[in-house]
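Board notes (copied after class):
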Amino acid sequence: MTSEALAAAIDQFGDPRGYLAVASIGLPPQRSVDAMMADLEAWAAADRDPQGYDPVIERTRASYARLVRVSVDQVAIGGAVSVMSSLVAEAVPPGAEVLVADNDFSSVHFPFLQRQGEGGIRVRVVALDALADEIRDDTHLVAFSLVQSATGQVADVGAIREAAARVGALTYCDVTQAAGVYPVDASLFDITSCHAYKWLCSPRGVGFLTVSERGSRALRPLQAGWYAGDDVWKSTYGPEMHLATNARRFDVSPAWQAWVGAEHAIELFAGLDMREVWERTSGLGDALCEALGIPLQHQPIVTWPDTSGQDLRTLIAAGVRVSGRAGRLRASFHLWNDESDVQAVTQALWGS
C-alpha cells in the first residue's frame, strides 16, 4: 500500500515514462516548476528584489534540516560538493592522513588529493568495503559518499562510525546520492555535504553542508562573504566582520532563482517517509535485476557491465533514459517510476 503522502508526491511528477536517470539529474515536481515560472515572470516585470529571497532560503534550510534530522542551526548552504569538500580538506592539518573510498565521486576525492605533496596531507585510498577496517590510529579524517555514484552501493555507516570513534577520526560524508531516496541521518557524522539536483529534484546550484559541534570547530569559514554574516544585510561591506555564530557562517551567497524551485522540492521530500521511498525504489531496482537475470542489488541504482556501451546506446535509442558510469550501465529509479519502466528496459534490450 502506498501512503497518501507518497501518492500525492508521485502525482507531482506527471508521467515521465522511461526516465531512469535520476542518479544523473532529477526531475522537478510540478510545484517547483510553477514557482520558478512565477518568479521568472515577477523578475521580468521588475517585481523582485534580493531581500525577498531570504525567506525562501530559510524555509528551504529548515526543510532540509528536517529531512536529514539535524537542527537548522547546523545547516549551511552552498552550491557544489567540491567547494564544500575543499573547505573540509583545507582544515586537515599538514601531515595528517585522510582515508577515502576507491572510485568515489571526484568531488569527494580531488580537494583532498590537491593537498598532497611536500608539507601537505596524506591521502590513502581503500575499497569501500574495507573503509572501516582500514581506519588507523593516525587517521585524522574519513571521507566517503553514503551511496556510491557509480554503483549505488550503500556504505556501512555503523562500522565506519565505530572504527572512527575508536581513534577519534572525523567523519565527512557526502549524501548527494542518498538524500531524497534513503533515510539520511546527518547527525551521525561530523560533516556532511549534499547537492540537491539529483534525488531531491531541485535546480542545480542548491547544496547543503551540515556540521556537528565538533565538525564546526574543525572548519574555518574561508569562503565567508556577505551571506555568512550574522546580519546579512549589514555584512555587505568590509573590513568589519561579524559572522553568524552557527553553521550559517559557512554559507555561500545563493543563486536566488534556483532556491525558488528547491524550496518546494525539498519541502515535498521532507514530508515523506524515506523508508517507504527506499522500499519502493529499491523494489523496482530488484524487479529490474530479476528481469535481467542478474543478482539482486537491493537498491534503486542498478548497474551491470556494459564496457562497449551497446546497452546504453540501445536503451537511449528506444527512449529509455539511462547513463553509463565506469564501464557499467546505470539505471536509477525514483518516485515517478513504476513496473512499466522495468518492462521498457527488457523490451528495448530483448524485444520482450
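Comment from the instructor: The radius of gyration is 21 Å. The first strand starts at residue 75 and ends at 78.
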